[in-house]
Amino acid sequence: MQRETLTVRADEVRFASDDEGVFTGYASIFGEPDSYGDTIRPGAFRKALSTRAATGGPPMFWNHDPSQPIGVWTELVEDSRGLKVTGRLITETRAGAEALALLKAGAVNGLSIGFRARKSERGAKGGRVLTDIDLVEISLVSLPAASNARVTSVRHDRQPAGTAAFVQAVRRAAASLKG
Questions:
Q1: Residue 85 to residue 138: CA distance in whole angstroms
Q2: Catalytic annotation on 156?
Q3: Would you call 162 helix, strand, or coil by DSSP?
Q4: What phi and psi values does residue 96 have, to the nearest 5 degrees?
Q5: pLDDT band, residue 163 (cuts 50/70/90)
Q6: Pairing mode, strands 151-155 and 128-141
Q7: Is the per-residue pLDDT at 8 higher than 70?
Q8: From CA 16, how far away is CA 83, in angstroms rounded?
Q9: Which residue in 10, 85, 131, 156 has a CA-CA distance of 20 to 30 Å to 109?
Q10: Is there a catalytic annotation at residue 112?
Q11: In the predicted model, is pLDDT for residue 115 greater than 60?
């Protein structure tokens, strides 16, 4: 009977995900009047996105509160539907961890933009039609002004029950094999 030896370093066993707290969604939807009567046209974010690309993305706040940053935006793109965003919650902070818990539970899923209108016109129903927007910040919110501005997916580390014990056992076995 021939034996084979498997060498595994204990520090090589990893089950954590780099996607912890990453989420995507739409911070703004084109053509949809918000609760203030504002409607955003395609292309309204073009200048803001090119400016922000050079200076860094807008901050991510909890409910538009600048004293509560909760993460960073990693991608902002205008597509045919609206302003599509990808962000990462900073789960090492209490506020970021709480925001992730609320997202995972489905208790919160709204997104909202803080902006200054650079160019607008009056719409048929009296509201503003925004054609050029200075994007100041994007927030994870409980109640978005634009009803369809929502988080569409949340990635997080979901380890099945017993995984932690299994990882510890593998690490102990690897350490004992190491000698």
A1: 9
A2: no
A3: coil
A4: -65, -40
A5: very low
A6: unpaired
A7: no
A8: 30
A9: 131
A10: yes
A11: yes
64 among known catalytic residues: yes
Across the range 57-63, mean pLDDT stands at 94
Q: Which of 4, 17, 20, 112 is catalytic?
A: 112
Residue 36 has pLDDT above 60, yes or no: yes
pLDDT digits (tens, 9 = 90+) for 84-98: 999 999 999 999 999
Q: Structural domains in the chain? A: 16-178 (3.20.16)
Active-site residue, from 28, 120, 137, 139: 137
Q: Looking at per-residue confidence, does 134 or 20 come out higher? A: 134
Residue 145: count other Cβ atoms within 10 Å of its Cβ: 17
Distance between CA atoms of residues 162 and 166, nearest Å: 6
CA atoms within 13 A on the CB side of 150: 9
Single out the residue of 140, 26, 50, 28 nearest to residue 89, CA to CA. Answer: 140
Q: Which of 64, 78, 98, 156 is catalytic?
A: 64
